[in-house]
Design brief:
Blueprint: H1 2-15, E1 22-24, H2 26-33, E2 41-44, E3 49-53, E4 60-63, H3 70-81, E5 88-91, E6 110-112, E7 115-116, E8 122-124, E9 153-160, E10 165-167, E11 175-178, H4 179-187, H5 193-201, H6 204-212, E12 218-222, H7 246-249, E13 252-257, H8 267-271, E14 276-280, E15 284-285, E16 299-301, H9 308-317, H10 319-336, H11 339-354, E17 358-360
Helix pairs in contact: 1-11, 4-5
Length: 361
């Protein structure tokens, strides 16, 4: 009974508010691609072919399937295995916040790994690599019973790269400059150090680490990755910490999840870690994040981190409630470990979309 409810809820979460009808044909696909990332492709199962925008941006050009990025290729293979028989868009880029179409416009199905909550145009599916089994990123990377709760250190831990953008509003939807761009302009002499510090201070990860760097209850730090070598990166040295494997992080009672461009990539393994996830709020969702409810499976905190210390105080004062959240997160994660359920869910998502009325263009 639990499994059936989980599958039903998963299908509903991934499809979200997409109710059709679905647009089909070259014109509809070309129009939709204009509103997607440069990573997006259109796929026509009847031709077995993938397409990208042509030079004019108004039509389509066929692309070599062998040249697709690994995330796109993996997602496409999963959809084909699920029996997809309709034209669709596949966009596995980060931060899918751009509006797909006016409310009255019929669009093709758009599969993505993230979307804004309430977005009725995108259908969620797992992100290859980060949501795959055996990669060290998903729930199977850890065991919740690896460290007994009584043996866990009452501190908050986080390790990650320094990437992201400045957030210019409370939800992080109004984008500022990318950190990489600001640092490059600093090296080129096109920005001053003071200007770059303003960009860094508005980046959620950076701002949080600066805020709590002297609090002994928090062990938060940047590590090398994604082109960043901290020792060679201006202004970063004081926030660098030694790299820490997941098994070591499980020794901590609390593990923070900090969003990057949209969500925190560590979210799923933290939910299965046997520690309490302290999760930075985000308006974005991924294929199974909706199963984990804030206050029931983890503790949320604001984008600017201003309430994180208070959240930790509450958690330390309420051990029974915290352990109940950890148990709830582990129970949900155990269902996400089921490869058979994941395959069934995607088949049902595809079948439900396939059953919607189609409009040929």
């Amino acid at each position: 009974m639990v499994e059936r409810a989980f599958v039903d809820n998963s299908v509903a979460l991934q499809i979200g508010a997409f109710t059709g009808p679905v647009a089909q044909g070259e014109a509809a696909l070309a129009r939709a691609l204009q509103r997607c990332s440069g990573m997006a492709i259109a796929f026509r199962p009847d031709l077995g072919a993938a397409f990208a925008p042509d030079e004019s941006g108004l039509g389509l050009r066929q692309v070599d399937l062998a040249s697709l990025p690994i995330k796109t290729a993996g997602a496409l293979a999963a959809l084909q295995a699920a029996g997809v028989d309709f034209d669709f868009i596949l966009d596995m880029q980060d931060r899918r916040a751009k509006r797909m179409a006016p409310n009255d416009e019929v669009t093709p199905p758009v599969f993505a790994f993230n979307r804004l909550q309430g977005d009725g145009r995108r259908i969620l599916m797992p992100l290859p690599i980060y949501h795959d089994f055996g990669t060290g990123h998903f729930v199977d990377a850890v065991r919740p019973d690896a460290v007994a709760w009584a043996d866990k250190v009452p501190r908050v831990v986080w390790r990650g790269i320094t990437g992201g953008r400045a957030a210019l509003d409370a939800d992080g939807l109004v984008e500022g400059m990318r950190i990489k761009m600001a640092l490059r302009r600093l090296r080129e002499g096109r920005m001053t150090e003071a200007q770059v510090r303003e960009v860094l201070a508005a980046c959620p990860r950076w701002g949080l680490l600066e805020r709590l760097r002297d609090d002994p209850r928090f062990d938060l730090g940047f590590v090398d990755g994604d082109g960043y070598v901290i020792a060679q990166t201006p202004l970063h040295a004081h926030l660098e910490r030694p790299r820490m494997p997941q098994a070591e992080m499980q020794r901590f009672r609390y593990v923070a999840v900090l969003r990057g461009l949209d969500v925190g990539s560590s979210f799923y393994w933290v939910m299965h870690s046997g520690s309490l996830g302290l999760v930075m709020e985000t308006p974005f969702e991924t294929f199974a994040s909706g199963h984990f409810r804030p206050g029931e499976a983890y503790l949320p905190f604001r984008l600017d981190g201003s309430d994180l210390a208070a959240r930790l105080d509450w958690a330390e004062a309420h051990p029974a409630e915290v352990q109940a959240m950890v148990a709830q997160a582990a129970q949900i994660s155990a269902l996400l470990l089921r490869a058979d359920l994941r395959a069934e869910i995607l088949r049902r998502v595809v079948a439900q979309v396939a059953a919607l009325p189609r409009v040929q263009e």
